[in-house]
Amino acid sequence: MTRSITDQQWLGQQNHDLVDAGHGHLLHPAVKLAFTAMQQKAHSDGIDLQIVSSFRSFERQLAIFNKKWRGEAILRNANGEVLDNTALSSIDKLHAILTWSALPGASRHHWGTDLDVYDRESVHQWNGSFELVEQEYLPKGPCYALACWLEDNMAEFGFFRPFSENKGGVAREPWHLSHKAVATDFEQSRSIEAFASTLKQSDMLGKDTVLANLPYLYNRYVLNNGS
Q1: Residue 172: CA atoms inside 13 Å, Cβ hemisphere, count?
Q2: H-helix or E-strand containing 29?
Q3: Tens of pLDDT along 21-34?
Q4: Domain 7-222 maps to which CATH number in 3.40.50.300, 3.40.50.980, 3.30.1380.10, 3.90.550.10?
Q5: Of 39, 74, 83, 177, which one's alpha carbon is 20 to 30 angstroms from that of 170?
């Protein structure tokens, strides 16, 4: 039975039910238990499974989005190639941002059910600059062993990769895990009406472009149904 999720919760505006999973990373209590068990199994298999990012509030996601809109952070295409922000139209810039970063209110990280992970020890021993890109989770990357381990073990603990393939929406994110049982309640609680209302009241840059295209963007990126 689906538990009651408020608009404030799935939009990332309320996080009172979350608990500290270590180093300030907040997770839903059931997700913390599942992750801790998975982390222990990984450790016994020689994998230093650690969290890069977990819960992010609406305001934090808004700051990330606005920073990218202003050109203060790197934009990439779906292949990870760096784009020239100044050469992009508003709609092209928006698509570039949403390929890798959610709109505020639309991130799965708002729920405490999703987290980005890495192999901390392997990254520390690596000579490169860790940027949380797909190549780092492919052969020769510092987190390739972790990616393979997750493929074999994550389902045992209730996790899956919501962005395991690029459908023409969000790019592939082999580091992004979601706890299926708990996240499903949040997925079913979303509504474009509450989302639109929240965005209209926000200080989001590019708001006119987003709102003018919201039904399309909601289907392509929020629901990740692709183009």
Answers
A1: 13
A2: helix 29-44
A3: 999 999 999 999 99
A4: 3.30.1380.10
A5: 39
